[in-house]
């Protein structure tokens, strides 16, 4: 519900959220099967396809980056040549300078930068326009071009506001149905922030 509410509060679409879902009794990052910045962008569509998502679903989910921020420590090796990394040449040079100013090489890695520059507090299609213009903060977002022409076409199609809103509102409930706990696994919590 918090994800849906955050989207709605930022002028995004709404969708039904099923309640009564079981939560685990232990919450560890090692138990979560999410992809990180280190994941090969080429493998991401296959990861989502294995859960029944198509190309539009995959790109719409990445469109969720229209709101929110990232810590500088997650992009520093993309915007500077350090630790054997090379500056990502897919970034527009003026935007690169902006990112380097926001996340200096010896700065505080916990400082935040908007994922969708210019409208990080509004659920809109500008994330796709930023990606198309070389203004993506995350490497996974900017690398969409390197996967397939089908993904690029989908990216362009989702710049249409109503199409993106519909695609996002359709795919989010399906995300919540991945690996649902059943039977004796987990519990329906009385207070969502702690085990019963």
Automatic annotation (TrEMBL):
Pfam families: peroxidase (PF00141)
Record lineage: Eukaryota, Viridiplantae, Streptophyta, Embryophyta, Tracheophyta
Required cofactor(s): Ca(2+); heme b
Protein name, as recorded: peroxidase
A Gene Ontology biological process term: response to oxidative stress
Signal sequence, start to end: none
PROSITE patterns according to UniProt: PEROXIDASE_4 (PS50873)
Entry note: cofactor: Binds 2 calcium ions per subunit.
Molecular function GO labels: heme binding; lactoperoxidase activity; metal ion binding
Highest rank taxon of the organism: Eukaryota
Reactions catalysed according to its record: 2 a phenolic donor + H2O2 = 2 a phenolic radical donor + 2 H2O
Binding locations of Ca(2+): 66, 116, 124
Presence of keyword Translocase: no
Role summary: Removal of H(2)O(2), oxidation of toxic reductants, biosynthesis and degradation of lignin, suberization, auxin catabolism, response to environmental stresses such as wounding, pathogen attack and oxidative stress. These functions might be dependent on each isozyme/isoform in each plant tissue.
The protein's Enzyme Commission number: 1.11.1.7
Family: Belongs to the peroxidase family.
Keyword Hydrolase: no
Record key words, sorted: Calcium, Disulfide bond, Heme, Hydrogen peroxide, Iron, Metal-binding, Oxidoreductase, Peroxidase, Secreted
